[in-house]
Amino acid sequence: MYSVYVTCADKDEAKKIAGLAIEKGLAACANIFQAHEALYFWEGSMQCDKEVAMILKTSKTRYKELETLIAANHSYDAPCILAFPAQDGNSAFLEWIDQSTEAKA
Description:
The chain is α+β, with helices and mostly antiparallel strands. The protein has helices at about 10-25, 65-70, 90-100, and strands at about 1-10, 30, 35-40, 45-60, 80-85.
């Protein structure tokens, strides 16, 4: 199981991407957090913008498809998409993630 951390321009973008991912079975669920400020260096200058972070839960086998979907529907040129593998966890929850993200025939 992977927890996939993604930042988005706003809540609407996060909800759109999360909804597509869940509908397509690429993620079992998403947690979308309140807007926060992000400081970063981009194209030669310091930037400070509001953005929204979310964590999507997916299976190892569906991660690459999820990454592709996020990138294709994201407004950023280089979106933050970071996957963190779960070392352990509630077996019932991990099983639910796998079942929710099984490829549909």
